TrEMBL record, chain A:
Its EC number is 1.7.2.2. InterPro entries: Cyt_c552, Multihaem_cyt_sf, Tetrahaem_cytochrome. Keywords: Calcium, Electron transport, Heme, Iron, Metal-binding, Oxidoreductase, Signal, Transport. It comes from Microbulbifer taiwanensis. It is an enzyme of class 1 (oxidoreductase). The keyword Signal applies. It is found in: Cell envelope. Belongs to the cytochrome c-552 family. It comes from the Bacteria. Its main location: other. This is nitrite reductase (cytochrome; ammonia-forming). It catalyses: 6 Fe(III)-[cytochrome c] + NH4(+) + 2 H2O = 6 Fe(II)-[cytochrome c] + nitrite + 8 H(+). It holds the Pfam family Cytochrom_c3_2. Its cofactor is heme c.
Automatic annotation (TrEMBL), chain B:
The lineage of its organism: Bacteria, Pseudomonadati, Pseudomonadota, Gammaproteobacteria, Cellvibrionales. Residues 32-186 form the Tll0287-like domain. PROSITE patterns: PROKAR_LIPOPROTEIN. Pfam families: Tll0287-like (PF11845). This is DUF3365 domain-containing protein. InterPro entries: Tll0287-like_dom.
């Protein structure tokens, strides 16, 4: 029998088919990792395999990409009273400016998969981007004539999107405050008080009322539950363990908790801890992907930190110990310089002593926000770090604005977790004092 | 037979032409459309300035109007109110855009930027009561551009602009043209 003689193109065909099969399998049935064109930014790497959440069907145009950005980030921009919203650039008189910098599209400044040019806040433009439209600023503000354009948005003075605590009138109203305010403390949470007010006749559930059946759970779990806020607000075992389900995946935990704590779930799934569990991600991604784990993070984590991130990572479901959630839950995973230095800080010492002005990790990173009469804990721990001077409202509960803004602009001080006073005062307040003098002078001459 | 076929062909072409003509909308001249849009903008703007801001802030002193109206629980300034509408219209791609500009804008982003804007704003200042019409090309689109005088209709307009630290002009008087409303319709 004559052996078949392979020609060169036969080998070529076989190799092409083999490569094609691997690539096709990766795209259709596996995790699509072969199609990542470059390392994603720190804000998106958690969901980088949810390709269609940004790219649609792969053939979507720029408008669909823009919609994808907006579908996740619109609420945050609205809340920040975005200084440069898309709608501001739709007037045709902006056409010459847009030819330089198309500020209507998020990707103009935030291109993904470009690690070599990605800077803080996922910005992929050169740091002096303000120049494109504000190059004549010194004509209106002579005080700015010596400032470099790459310092506008990097020195704690201005942000492109969120200037809600950096605008002139706000700073004027907060100038000259003492470093430490009298009555320094965070606002008290209001959820439990509101519930008790609205349900005056509802009594706490007792240990013997646990409805799951004693044979189904250890006694210490029932005892912890009986002392918890859940028992106080009449949430029995079956409130979470419907149909007797005892084991939950991270996704199920977040969904279960979120059925009552919807604001918290919404915020949690907007931050890096929980964004893989966001409901707007594609179904096939949700089916193939688990929640984030500490070892998948880009920040330094303890080698033994493990498990998937869900509500239960910080809040033991039966004890609901908020003290644990406020510090030890964080330090159990995070091992960066800032986290490791926390227990040496005045903030922590005061907190661990039970003082009113004590500061835990959660005090700053899970801030208590006023929504009308309510004080709600924002469970998106990244919200006030984008960029970090968005944390100013938290600091102002205890500190004056000049002290706080100087601290938030001092990178070394942040790394050492505020173990000393800020090294220098923030120059923005010198400009504010000049401005106040000019306004007073102008009024006296009228 | 040949004549009949020819006549039928002529008739069918003529009928098709007539039907097409009837089906076409006649449309409104850009100038007329811009005038009508301005009438609405001006009416809303004057009503808000007089009956809301001037009454509540200057006369009854119930609530202030402030640039940071959300934070300070105040009324939006009349100029902000108008720009909110302009941005909403632009987002809806309604077939036209409008803007409030001035040679003496407090926010320098609202100074004239195109040649036609400069020309038009100077024209309406020099010719009180008259409008300015022209056309210009911005990007790759040609626009019919109309500029209408924006007149100080209430004491609130005058006092706020004359007292503001960043105002380049501090001697406005009631009834004076302070700026212009620019309406653009793509052609």
């Amino acid at each position: 029998m004559k052996a078949y003689k392979f020609k060169f193109w036969h080998y070529g065909l076989l190799v092409t088919l083999a490569i094609g099969s691997v690539v096709a399998y990766n795209l259709e049935f596996s995790d699509k990792t072969l199609f990542i064109s470059g390392e994603t930014s720190h804000g998106h790497h958690q969901i980088e395999l949810a390709c269609s959440s940004c790219h649609g069907d792969g053939f979507s145009g720029p408008e669909a990409m823009q919609q994808a950005c907006v579908s996740c980030h619109a609420d945050e921009l609205e809340l920040a009273n975005d200084s440069h919203p898309r709608k501001k650039f739709l007037d045709p008189r902006n056409a010459p400016l847009l030819a330089h910098l198309d500020a209507r599209q998020c990707v103009t400044c935030h291109a993904e998969h470009k690690p070599e040019i990605t800077r803080s806040m996922g910005v992929t433009l050169a740091g002096d981007f303000c120049f494109h439209c504000h190059n004549d600023i010194a004509e209106d503000r002579s005080s700015h004539k010596d400032f470099a354009f790459d310092s506008c948005a990097s020195a704690g003075c201005h942000n492109f999107h969120d200037n809600s605590t950096l605008y002139e009138d706000f700073l004027i109203a907060h100038v000259g405050q003492p470093e430490l305010q009298p009555n320094a403390q965070l606002p008290a949470r209001t959820a439990m008080q509101s519930w008790l007010r609205e349900n005056p006749h509802e009594r706490s559930l007792q240990l013997q009322e646990a409805d799951l059946g004693e044979e189904n759970f250890p006694a210490e779990i029932a005892a912890a539950w009986a002392q918890s806020a859940h028992a106080r607000v009449a949430v029995n075992c079956s409130g979470c363990h419907a149909d007797g389900q005892l084991q939950f995946s991270s996704r199920e935990i977040v969904a279960q908790c979120g059925s009552c704590h919807s604001e918290q779930r919404e915020a949690f799934t907007r931050g890096k801890h929980g964004m893989r569990l966001a409901t707007q991600l594609p179904e096939d991604f949700a089916a193939k992907t688990t929640a984030m784990s500490p070892q998948q993070a880009r920040l330094p984590m303890h080698a033994d930190a493990s498990g998937e991130l869900s509500c239960a990572s910080c809040h033991s479901p039966h004890e609901t110990d908020l003290q644990f959630a406020a510090v030890e839950a964080c330090l159990g995973c995070h091992s960066d310089e800032h986290s490791l230095a926390f227990k040496e800080s005045a903030h922590f010492k005061s907190w661990s002593a039970g003082a009113d002005d004590g500061v835990s990790c959660a005090s700053c990173h899970l801030p208590r926000e006023r929504h009308g009469e309510r004080v709600v804990v924002n469970h998106n721990q990244n919200h006030n770090l984008r960029p970090n001077d968005k944390m100013l409202p938290v600091c102002l509960n205890c500190h004056g604005a000049e002290f706080a803004l100087a601290a938030l602009s001092d990178r070394k001080l942040i790394a050492h977790n505020f173990n000393r006073r800020p090294a220098v005062e923030h120059e923005t307040f010198d400009l504010i004092r000049d401005r106040i003098a000019r306004i007073a002078n102008s009024k006296s001459t009228q | 037979m040949r004549i009949n076929a020819f006549t039928a062909a002529i008739l069918s072409v003529a009928t098709a032409g007539l039907l097409t003509a009837c089906g076409q909308k006649q449309g409104i001249a850009p100038e007329r459309m811009a005038d009508a849009i301005f009438a609405v903008i001006e009416a809303d703007r004057a009503s808000y300035t007089n009956n809301v801001v001037n009454r509540l802030q200057n006369e009854e002193k119930v609530i202030k109007a402030d640039e940071h109206w959300k934070d300070n629980k105040a009324l939006p300034l009349p100029a902000q109110m108008m720009r909110m509408g302009a941005e909403r219209v632009a987002e809806q791609e309604s077939g036209f855009t409008y803007a409030l500009l001035s040679l003496w804008a407090i926010n320098k982003q609202n100074k004239p930027r195109t040649e036609l804007e400069k020309q038009g704003l100077e024209f309406i200042i020099d010719n009180p009561g008259q409008n300015f019409y022209g056309s210009e090309t911005l990007g790759d689109t040609q626009y019919f551009t109309a500029i209408y005088p924006d007149v100080a209709v209430s004491p609130a307009c005058v006092s706020c602009h004359n007292d503001h630290i960043d105002s380049p002009r501090t001697d406005f008087e009631l009834g004076e043209t302070m700026g212009g409303v620019v309406i653009r319709i793509p052609l």
